[in-house]
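Blinded run. Sample ID left blank on purpose so nobody reads anything into the name before looking at the predicted structure. Input follows.
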Amino acid sequence: MKIRFGYVSTALALWECSPSKSLTFTRYKALEKEERSLKLLEVTKLNLINTLRILHYNIAHDIKVYRMSSSIVPLATHPEVKWDFRSAFKEELKEIGQLVKKHGLRVSLHPNQFTLFTSEKEHITDNAVIDMQYHYDLFEGMGLANEGTINIHVGGAYGNKTAALGRFHENIKKLPPHIKAQMTLENDDKTYTAEETLHVCEKENIKMVFDYHHHQANLSEKDLGDLLPAIFSTWKDSNYVPKVHLSSPKSEKEFRSHADLVSLEFIQPFFTLCREVGRDFDVMIEAKQKDTALHQLVAEVSKIRGVKRVGGAAIEWK
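Blinded prediction complete.
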């Protein structure tokens, strides 16, 4: 069983390297008209430069799995701003994509919690489609439209989970098929369990990203050992191995919050189950200390008997 590890968005080891520098609409409106586009270009340029810096850092440390920031392009979906970032940064986006392909990196994006398809309100669904289109466009500009995945949660229950799931299956029809083909769904820590999310994925032919921390906070009726093979099977038609999210609780009181690092003791039972399934998979570490947490976890896991480190962020477990 081979496991590769990755992290989210920002490499904390690098100085001033946020790929998510922002420009709020309030700040944008306060600028003189001729300054607005210049500021948009300035902030986006810096985010793209920092994304490239992070990718080079990942390559140097042999980290093959990485979630890009969804905030690379400020105000990309704002109805009063929407702008053609792909034309403005054609070469920069292309450079990022070429680097990803050359080094065989696996990249993804994760829109915010407001990108959902269970709402009764039509404008929320319409905005979700717009946001998914932006993420797809970002990957397409990089030449990664058929490679990068876009991960979201099922959404809210609004007091009636059955009705909400019915709306999901109806509302998702608004999403263009080529974008839906690149989306993944993740179980959440309060509403939709892994089992419920799996049923949605199987019905819609969507790949499922399993989050172990969320699962522990929001347990399924079915045992995880029975669910895991089916969850992994949602990736059967993909060019990639299954992906899971790993993090650990900040504290018993703040169980749903992510800790700075990942507790090996907390995730060890999950690894035990995975060994029984016997499939390779990739891990996205969702810890506050990001790349620092990755390096520490890989070093700890590598000390386990039967584990061999085979890369900067990859292990083989016999």
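Unblinding after everyone has recorded impressions. The mean pLDDT is 97.
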